[in-house]
Starch phosphorylase
Amino acid sequence: MTLAAYTTRYLPESLRGLFALALDLHWTWHHGSDELWRTLDEDTWNATRNAWLVLNSVSGDRLEEVAQDPTFQARYLEQMAAREVFSSASTWYSDSCAPALDRGIAYFCMEFGLSESLPLYSGGLGVLAGDFLKAASDLGLPVTAIGLLYQQGYFRQAISRTGEQLEFYPYNDPTMLPVSPLRDADDEWVRVVVPLPGRPVRLRAWRAQVGRCELLLLDSNDPRNEPGDRGITSELYTADPEKRLQQEMVLGIGGWRLLRQLDRKPLICHLNEGHCAFALVERAFAWQDDHQQDFETARTATRATNLFTTHTSVASGFDLFPASLLRLYLTPWLASRDLDLNGLIALGNGSNRGQAQPGECAEDECRLNMARLALNMSGRFNAVSRIHQAVTQNLFQPWFPRWPAEDIPAGYVTNGVHTPSWDSPESDALWTRTCGQDRWRRPLERQCPMAEVSDHELWDMRRAQRKRLIRYLRSRLASQHCEQAFPSDRDAACGVLLDGETLTLGFARRFTDYKRPDLLLKNPERLISLLSSRDRPLQIVLAGKAHPYDQRGKQMIRQWKTFSRRPEVEGKVVFIEDYDLGVASQLVQGVDVWLNCPRHPWEACGTSGMKVLVNGGLNLSQYDGWWAEAWRPEVGWAIRPGATVEQLRNARDHDRQDAEELLDLLEYSVIPAFYTVDDKGIPHPWLEMIRASMNGLTAAYSANRMVRDYVAQFYVPMAEMGAQRSPEVARQLVAQTRALAIHWPHIRFGTFSVNTIGESQTCTVEVYLDGAEQDEVAVELVAEASDHGPRVVATMTLVYPLSGSENTFLFEASVPARPEGHYTPRLRPRDERLNLPLENPAILWMK
Ligand SMILES: *Cc1c(COP(=O)(O)O)cnc(C)c1O
């Protein structure tokens, strides 16, 4: 492709602005310009929802024609004016936060799901990153996202006659994607170089406009690269560890270099998952170049403004790279640095031997764990739901030796979805009437008055949405070759038997074991009786891809396909191929109930159920992830309500129990509520639940709330902490940490005594500090929760130095009385300027 392609497309002078409109992905959620694209080329628009493709494929004659059409011109001018207003309007950020984060936030992620027309994602993580970026745009937060432009994206799915998943990898022609080459001030196409063994790899930079924000993308398909290297960014989540490492180098190292080349100096670097951890190392290197300091000082100075968000729930989810591969690939990058490979591996040690020091692990057992590297390069880190916070504390505990899990400083921000991307035209109209036009661009603090909406109107909306979904499903099913595949029961296969008034249950997500897509099939006879009830029927819509190597996932697809062909359920269970953002958006608008039933603790948060909230869909879900925070009996149904992390962790094989509970809920709660109608056919109790869910949950589980949480809990305090970390302070902190480390092995506890007076106990302990500064350590008294009371962590204060022995001090604390042995003193580094124990996990317990 040539750069010229972006400039030579002829547009009539009066329509020049269409370029900018088509390249701004704002059209993926703000539908004001839809009519323009539809008018230009209805077929292409309907098939691809890609405005850029429409603009590039429409004929010159057609363009001339619409340029003369006053209706088109008027609509075009109106959209151009709206764009002008949008980009200059004040925002939540400009009104209530600026200029605190004006230097911007760099947001790194392996995948971005913004639109089905830009297929650079595989699932939840990417969709979350896309929703984050769109909400940042709404709020006016200066975010620059960095990702990779994959030539193939994620695979497209078809299902064979026998229920086998077929995988296709269509080529993403970048010129047809709604992105443009990124140019520098001299109008040159920006390129970034990353060193690989024996050769540089050149990366081309692309730019996607996402409303007020930008997504910068790198790809390696530069003709000057070696043929193998041109394919580094060919596909997402390759199973080949070598290619994966190459991709993570390209994204992390190349991504930070790109920002630097553009002279951007983001204040905050936010990693969405650990894949991109090399960015933080490259950031420290760049800081070294600017300040001529050693790596440790650079790490200390820069990490205060690095945030690491983890979405992982099990240790097998971490990326691990063997030392032999790292030696081959990272050596050229580290060549001129004072951080060698052992030093790097020590920062992200993932060997089974715990805390190996540089050079300590044998070549074949050394592993670099990208999450641990991210952790050791960050000033803060967070999980993505309250339950996931506890899961993360346990998962990361081995990296904080001898620290109790509950003291591990993981914060959490519950994920949210970009509401305007998921609402239906009907719900959009309803919310606009009740809450105003710009409601999703500002915090939605006011409870939205769904109470003002009549039952009648709310039910009409639900019915209209369901009917539109059925129409969509029928046309999708028709294009799924229903006629060839099902000569005998064509109507069922083509969805003709789906019914617009039937309770519709949706299940769509990746087909993989822990998501338990087969939970409903554990008792097929019982499910059949619900589906085929004459008075109160149920119908189910399913969609989802199995990873190409996931045999179990593929088996569950086959299972559903086989089940759906049973004569008793014909036309009541349909499987839609090729789940993507487009399919998801249709499903979440139309289904009555969204089902999510993952096995604990694998689902960190889950977001698909949040997408139905705005549309008045209800959730029936495992009490896990976000639903454990959101669920109350008034807003939906939970499987195992109230289950605690501990209970769930210890429960074994509860699939069957959960399946029965799920079928019970459907049979005795969900179905009766839906079909309990008044003489006009309106189900009042159902609508009460919809109101409670829409009012209570839509704003709380929106990306708008999520982004503001990141700002208030992380970005702003981190920016303040970062401002204190001058090169001078960073040097001091490093020197201080090193000095303490010298004394550390000699520091010890002496006599511990307890004096009980009634309900209170005064504890004292002697501490030998070996010459370490006494104000650089904290001594605490800890009692675990027991029948005698909750957990206590009390600071012990210095009473006096013991005169008889050098470097020995007496510490004291008064605490609620507990039996002997319940209180244990511990000692750890203290410095207000550090985030501890993240930045120094040293700890000493009195034996
Ligand atoms: C929302 C979404 C997901 C994530 O859904 P989960 O329930 O969190 O698994 C995955 N894929 C697509 C296309 C989505 O829209």
About this structure: The chain has a mean pLDDT of 93. The domain at 425-701 is CATH 3.40.50.2000 (Rossmann fold). The longest strand covers residues 199-210.
